[in-house]
Amino acid sequence: MAAARGGLRRRREDCVQMKLADAIAAMELQLQQQIQLLASADDNRSSKATASGQQAAAAAASSSAPKVQFPSFLQRSKSLYMLDLASNNFYRGLPMWIGELSKLQILRLSHNNFSASIPTTITNLGFLVYSQTVLDPATAAAVVLASAPPLLPRRPAAAGGNVTAAGCSTLERDALLAFKKGITADPAGVLASWNHDDCCRWRGVRCSDCTGHVVGLNLRNKHANQQELIDYEEFALVGEISHSLLNLHHLEHLDLSLNAIQGPSARVPKFLGSLKNLRYLNLSGIPFNDTVPPQLGNLTNLHYLDLSSEWIDTLARWFPTQMTSVDLSWLTRLRSLKYLNMHSTNLSMVQDWTHVVNNIPSLKVIRLANCELTYANQHLSHINLTNLEELDLSQNHFDHSIASCWFWNAKGLEYLNLRFTELYGRFPNALGHLKSLQVLDFKRIINIDIMTANMTNLCKLRILNIESSQVHGNIAEFIERLPQCSSTRLNELYLSNNNLTGILPNHLYPLTSLVILDMSLNELSGHVPSEMGMLSNLTYLDLSGNNLDGVITDEHFASLKSLKTLDLSGNSLTILVNITNLDMSFAGITDMFPDWFSTTFANLNRLDVSNNGINGSLPANMKGMASLSRLYLNSNNITGQIPVLPEGLNIMDLSRNSLSGPLPSNFGAFYLSDLRLFSNRITGQIPQSICELQNIDILDLADNLLVGEFPRCFQSDYISMLFLSNNMLSGKFPPCLQSMKVLYILDLSSNNFYGSLPKWIGELSKLEILRASHNNFSGSIPTTITNITGLVHLDFSRNSISGVLPFHLSNLTGMTSRSSPTTFGHYVPILNMSVDTKAHELYYQESVIFEVVTIDLSSNFLTGEIPKEIGFLDGVKNLNLSWNQFNGRIPSSIGLMRSLESLDLSKNNLSGEIPSSLSNLTYLSYLDVSYNHLTGRIPSGGQLDTLYSQNPSMYNGNSGLCGLPLHKDCSDGGNASVGKRSERDKEFLYFGLGSGFVVGLWVVFCTILFKRIAYFRLFDKLYDERRALLRSIKPLFTGEFGRHDSWNEATDCCTYWSGVVCGGDRRVVSLFLDQAGIAGAVDVGVFAPFTELQELDLSWNKITAFVAAACSRAAEANDGSDPEVAGSDPEVAGSDHPGPDLSVMAATTARGGGRDDDDAATMTARGGGFGPEAAGSAGSGRDDGTEQRLRRRGPAAATTTMTAATWLRGTGGLNPEQAAAWRYAAWCRGGPGLARPLQI
Q1: Where are the alpha helices (DSSP H) in 1060-1171?
Q2: What is the mean pLDDT of the chain?
Q3: pLDDT at 1210 over 80
Q4: Is 625 exposed, middle or buried (0-12, 13-18, 19+ CB in 10 A)?
Q5: What whole-number distance in Å separates Cα of residue 1082 and Cα of residue 1080?
Q6: Which portions of the sequence form the region Disordered (predicted)?
Q7: pLDDT tens digits for 1027-1050?
């Protein structure tokens, strides 16, 4: 396969070299033509147009760079030689950085959706000899490579056939479709893609990159697997091989293996011998039932031939067939053959098979297993198979001595398989000369004398298999005949089911590289040498079924760190392991604990076999493991009850198993400090024996089936975590908890506890997590709960608690952002806990649970108002007060809870407005205030603008709410913002008046004077901009998309109008008018009132021109108020508030629909919409020196300066209509040149 790929690669390189000279010559000619074309252009535009065109192309490419879809990671591939992205769906323009790929020689981008101009930087590709693109090169005159003749054409016409639109040969396409007609069943859909014109893109079809012809057809059934034979039947193609393949004249690779396409005759098609260009033919696994056609000998270029039927043998219940051959002489014509596989082909009638294969010196692999051959001892005067590396003659019936075989002189052999043959006798000395041998397989060759085989010099031998061969002899002598090289490579040694005797030697040097060692079912005796533990690479060791005795200690396992399988059964061994720490977690163990486990590992101090598949019950005699202090058996499938435990056990984790029955009446382990039994099936009551665990620190009995009350006798001065959740426990709040002063976590949730919460709960001052949800608690929440200052998780949800929330919530400093880290720091034992947040139940592990600061009091009967002090708890991330009876207003102090991510106040009796301070909650990702009595406008800003799309029901059940995102207008919405501003102004005014009596009357006078002037000026500007939006810009909208329907008199333009963005002083700074349906010519004067405008987006419209023809109307509207509108104005020239930068605006609008990028580039080159002639006419307020300087800086600079110089900052006492016209006239003060339409 590697050789085939290498040959194909060489042919491609030859193809490139053949056409390289032609491509370069054609490109040189095209370059000369382009130069002549440029030389004949207009003299007045030759220099400037070229510079402007390059600048325009660069600007256009630069402006669109962030949006291109060309793969950006290629920018780092500086050594790229060839780039082929043809026939894909890439779109938009090419990036400017493509010129950085300086070593690129071949560039193919055809058959895509690229647009825009070709970047001028492509001229930096000095080595580029071939470029095939589909772009518009009109604006990049310097780039001539775009239309270079193809060096590697996509798929040119094949001989004798036309070329379809997609580039596939019609003749070859029809041949493949005819083949498809011969397929009657395709359960895997292999041929589903054979339905469009380009057959080179069909599954399994490969075409030459050089000629475009079909050169490969690979339809192998890739689902077939000998371990899952049913796949063969379910996914195989069914039918016959069509003669149409003869029209694939250039076919080199044909693989139809493991399919059922034998046809009704079940014969190998003879016409395949006419595919003269074939180099690879694989028909293996097809259930043919006939002789092998000698016509295959015509395939003189064949390198690979596979006619094997080994799959059919395993699938005999479906295909009880077999190919045969009586003559193999046709093989000698295949002078280039390297691989021959005729496995399971009946060759019993062939008399000279040895001479045939010897006459094919190119052969590297010969596989003739199970071919019913009867001899391999023909005399060959000369061995021609000097390249032979692999020989498989297994499962044949050779009834002669092994020493007489012909292959011992094949010096290059690396693989020799003779298993299941009937060879016999001594091995020849020639075996020791096959120094390239890596695999020797003599399995079940019953009468060979392996003890005479000299293998000491086979230094490359990796696998030796002589199992079930009835070998007799001493094991020590046999080991001495193995390779004795300085760097042995023997990895696998299979000696099982023989008659080897003796004692294993202490010297095991030849075995030091072993990975697999199988000596089972022999007659070995004596002790197992401790040196066995030095075989550090062993993963599999089987010594079962021998007569070994003695003691196995930990010394035998000293270096066996990779051992996965150990079988010592069927011996008389005693295992005594002096291991104190055994960790076999995540080892994939699926067995039961053996009876000897407790005695063998009696010295263990720590045992970890967690996260496996161990089943069965725990060892009954665990009490005898006196040294065991830490036991981790969690996450297995252990069943049964808990036995009496070792007395010294300190930590035991049996969580996530299938333990059943009651807890033991006698734990036996009186010093337990950590007991975890959660997620089992333990039943019954908690026994009194739990009270004997005086040193317990962590007790987790959650997720079981326990019933009854928690024992009152339970007392522990050390317990820090108690988990009883998800059981069926009952009774009142356990009174024994009052004395547990160091309790950090208490979880009583999901039980049947009842009664009121005790007042002494506040004495548990160390508590950080308190969960009592899903119970039947009643009464009120004790005010003493605020004494638990370190609390970070409080959950009383789904009870019957009533009353008001306790005051002094600010005492819960653990719920503030200033709180100190949890008692456990960054290490917290794995906790079995979840949090109901964001309408989901989320599970957390380790220290993360302490970071999710939570208050959940939902589904109770709490009343009263929500305390304002709750806002001090700015570390809370999850606040849920839903399904209660809270009334009053939502406190605005909630806006101070900056860490809040989930807020649920639904199903209460809350009234009033939703406080606008909620917009300050930048982390808020879930909000629900539904089914209350809220009224007024819904606040906006921050996260509030995005939450509605995620939870559309968040405002349901509040009939008084209005405003976006609801489809309900507020009656006073239009003047709301102005009214509020007026109220704030009045308050400020009254405050100023009061202060004036203290600091003097003149301060009052100055304050009122300057404030009112600034206020009314600001109000005038706001009114002008709002009026301009409604009277001048909105009429431009056609309503085609309806994106700006929100522009109406009743709403605030800065808050609710789509596409309008205001600054801090509520002046319009951005207008996004994209997709507004604006069409035709647009008068630039409509944007004059917006003196603070920074962004203007007119993209995706149908604008055909920008005009300034209405300047005359502006002059008329001036009404004589400003006699110098048409002339120079020093005040105007010195203004520090220029209007919009039209060069930016023009570049933006050039992206609108219906225009080419070359037009955009032309417009940008003109200085953003004002051409050079316009710049020249804009000097009404400048001297000649200024004009000359601007001309030297270019037209864009002149235009920008002109705009800044003529923009007005204020309008004095003009009325709004006159002010707008006055600004408009200033905008247009460039002279008559600006009145002409600017075509875009």
Answers
A1: 1111-1118, 1130-1133, 1142-1149, 1157-1165
A2: 76
A3: no
A4: buried
A5: 7
A6: 1117-1199
A7: 777 777 878 777 555 556 778 776
Question: What angle (nearest 5°) sits at the alpha carbon of residue 1048, between those of residues 1047 and 1053?
Answer: 60
Q: Could you give the C-alpha distances from 7 to 2, 220, 579, 621, in angstroms and in order?
A: 9, 22, 58, 69
- Model pLDDT, residue 1180: 35
Amino acid at 670: F
DSSP state of 1030: I
Give residue 100's identity as a one-letter amino acid code.
Answer: E
Cα–Cα dist 387/1114, whole Å: 96
Q: Where do we find the tokens 């409604």?
A: 1030
Token pair 């209460």 is found at 908
Element spanning 756, H or E: strand 752-756
In eight-state DSSP terms, residue 255 is: E
pLDDT > 60? residue 38: no
Is residue 541 exposed (0-12), middle (13-18) or buried (19+ Cβ within 10 Å)?
A: buried
Phi then psi for residue 464, to 5 deg, are -130, 125
Percent of the chain at pLDDT exceeding 90: 39
Closest Cα to residue 838, out of 825, 823, 856? Answer: 856
Q: Is-contact 1091 1020, C-beta < 8 A?
A: no
Q: List pLDDT tens digits, range 884-894.
A: 999 999 999 99
Burial (CB count <10 Å: 0-12, 13-18, 19+), residue 1226: buried
Residue 695 pLDDT class (50, 70, 90 cuts): confident
Distance CA(790)–CA(870), nearest Å, equals: 16
Pair type for strands 833-837 and 878-880: unpaired
1186, pLDDT greater than 80: no
> Are the C-beta atoms of residues 618 and 593 closer than 8 Å to each other?
yes
- Burial bucket for residue 616 (CB in 10 Å: 0-12, 13-18, 19+): middle
Residues 6+ apart with CB under 8 A from 86: 108, 109, 110, 111, 112, 132, 154
Query: Looking at residues 579-594, what average pLDDT do you find?
Result: 87
pTM score: 0.47
Amino acid at 791: L
Rounded distance between C-alpha atoms, residue 58 and residue 47, angstroms:
17
Torsion sign (Cα): 780, 785, 786, 790: negative
Tokens of 176: 């493949």
What mean pLDDT is predicted for residues 481-494? 89
pLDDT score at 464: 95
pLDDT of residue 1157: 38
Q: Average pLDDT of 53-58? A: 42
Name residue 525's amino acid.
Answer: S
Q: Give the 3-state DSSP-derived string for 288-350, with helices as H, strands as E and coil as C.
A: CCCECCHHHHHCCCCCEEECCCHHHHHCCCCCCCCCECCCCHHHHHCCCCCEEECCCCECCCC
Q: Where are the alpha helices (DSSP H) in 736-885?
A: 848-851
The C-alpha atoms of residue 821 and residue 260 are separated, in whole angstroms, by: 69
Residue 587 pLDDT exceeds 90: no
Whether the CB-CB separation of 1112 and 1059 falls below 8 Å is answered with: no
The label of the residue with tokens 């080991």 reads 479
Give ∠ CA 289-310-380 in degrees, rounded to 5.
95
Q: What is the pLDDT of residues 141-193, one digit of tens each?
A: 333 333 333 333 333 333 334 444 345 788 999 999 999 999 999 998 999 99
Pairing, β 280-282 against β 304-306: parallel
State pLDDT tens for residues 913-940: 999 888 888 889 899 999 999 999 999 8
> Is residue 210 helix, strand or coil?
coil
CB count within 10 Å of CB 269 equals 21
Distance from C-alpha of 569 to C-alpha of 525, rounded to nearest angstrom: 14
CA–CA separation, 522 and 512 (whole Å): 21
Q: Which residues are registered as beta bridge partners of 676? A: 653, 700
CA distance 575 to 582: 15
Contact between residue 551 and residue 528 where contact means Cβ atoms under 8 Å apart: no
Return the closest-CA partner of residue 102 out of 71, 123, 88: 123
